[in-house]
Amino acid sequence: MSARDAAPGPLTPTGTISSPVDRRRVAFATVVGTTVEWYDYFIYASAAGLVFGQLFFQPAGPGFATILSFLTVGISFLFRPLGAFLAGHYGDKIGRRPMLVLTLILMGAATTLVGLLPTYQAIGIAAPILLLVLRILQGISAGGEWGGAVLMAVEHAPKYRRGLFGAMPQIGVPIGLLLASGMFAVMTALFPGDAFLEWGWRIPFLFSFVLILVGYYVRRRVEESPVFQEIAERKEQASAPVIQLFRRFAPLVILCAFVFAANNAVGYMTTGGFVQNYATNPEGPVGLERGPVLWAVTASSITWLISTFIGGWISDRIGRRTTYIFGWVWLGAAVFALFPLVNSGDIWLLTLGLVLLTIGLGFSYGPQSSWYSELFPASVRFSGVSISYAIGSIIGGAFAPTIAQAIVQGTGSTDGVAYYLFGLIIASLIATILLRDRRGIPLGPDHEEEQSKGIYLWKK
C-alpha cells in the first residue's frame, strides 16, 4: 500500500475515509455479507438441478419437471429489477447501509423457509407455489443487495485502488458458490440415496439462519458510504433518482446491462445448476455420481474467486475495459471447450472445463464494481448500478439453465448451448467497447458535471 493510500484523513468527495483500518473493515463486511447473500441464492439453484424436480414437480414427468425446476430459478430474476428499483431509490435517498441490512434479512428468511417447506407429496400443488413465492423474495433481495455492497466498497476506496476494493463484494459470489456446492457435497456424503432426498437437502437451507446472524452483525458495524454522507449533509439527494436515471442515462443502463449479460449467463451454467444436472442425470450421456460433480464445482469456485480478485486488482493497472476484453476472449474459447470436456465422462476433465470457464468469468466480473461506480454520477449511482445489474441478469442468467436444458432436450447435443453462450459473449464484448474507461474519476457530488460526460465511446 502506498503512503498516499494509507495516510488517514477526513472524508473527501473522492470517497476516501479516515484510516486503512476502516477501509479493511468495509472490505471484510462486503465480502461476508455478499457471501451470505449468494450462498443463499446458489443453494436454491443447486437444489433446483439436483432435487426440486423430483420433490416439487414430480407429476410433470422427469424431463419437464427439470425444466419447471430451472424455470423457478429464472422467474426470480424477473423480480430483481423490483428489488433494484426499491433499493436504488431508497439507497440514493436514505443511504447504502440500511438497504444492505434489509436485503440480507429478507434473503435469509426466504432461504430458511425453503428448508422447512413441505413437498408436493405432502401438500400437493401448494408446495411448488410456496417454493416459487420464496424464490421471488430471494430475487427481490438479490436485486437490491449487489448495488449497495459494491458502492460501500468502491466509495470507501482510495482513488487508485477502486478495482481492488471493488473486487471484495465480487469475490463473495464464488465464495458463496464454494460454500453452497461444498455443503451439498457434504450432505450427499452424509445422507446417501433416499436420505438426501428426504432430509439431506434441507440442511444447507436451514444453515442459512446462522450465516445471516453473522452477516447482520458484521454489516451493522460498518459506517455509511462517505459519498452518501456528503450528499446527505448537503441535502442533495435526488427526489426521484430512478426517474432521473432513465431520463438522463437510459443508454448507459442498457449498455451496462449487456456488459453483465454474458458473464451471468455463462456463470449460471454452474451456479444455476445446469452442469450439475446434465452431468449427474442417470439417463443422460454422462451419468457421473452427484458427489464428485459437486466437488468439481466447489474446486472451480476457488479458481473463480482467485481470478475475480486478480481481475479487480489488475484493472487498476491496465484499465477496466481492457481487463474485460481479455475476459471475453478467454470466456469465448472456454465455452467451446467446456462441453466436450464434460461429455468425456471423466471427472478430472469436467473439473478442467469448469476451471477454464471460471478464469474467464473472474476477469469479466472482478472489475465490474469499480467500472459501474465510475460510470454513473453520484446522485443516481445506487439506482444505476443496481438496475443495470438486475436487467443484465434477466438478459443473461435468468433463463440460461432453462434455455440450455431445452436446447439439449430438443437437439440431443450440447453444441447449441455453446453457440448460445458465445452469442451473448459477442453482445457483451460490443457493449464493453462502446463504453469509456473512467479509472480514477472523482466520485463525490462536487464532480457531478464531470461524471455526466465522457461516458460513451462515440461522445465526448
The value of Rg in angstroms is 21 Å
State the order of secondary-structure elements, H for helix, E for strand. Answer: HHHHHHHHHHHHHHHHHHHHH
Strand portion, in percent? under 5%
Compute the separation of the termini in Å.
Answer: 34 Å
Work out the number of β strands. Answer: 0
User: Which spans of ≥5 residues are poorly predicted at pLDDT below 50?
Assistant: 1-18
**Chain oligomer state:** single chain
Mean pLDDT: 85
Shape: globular
Helix count, DSSP H or I runs of 4 or more residues:
21
Could you list some keywords that capture this structure?
460 residues; mainly alpha; disordered N terminus
Describe the structure.
Helix content is 76%, strand content 0%. By secondary structure, it is mainly α. The longest helix has 37 residues, at 20-56.
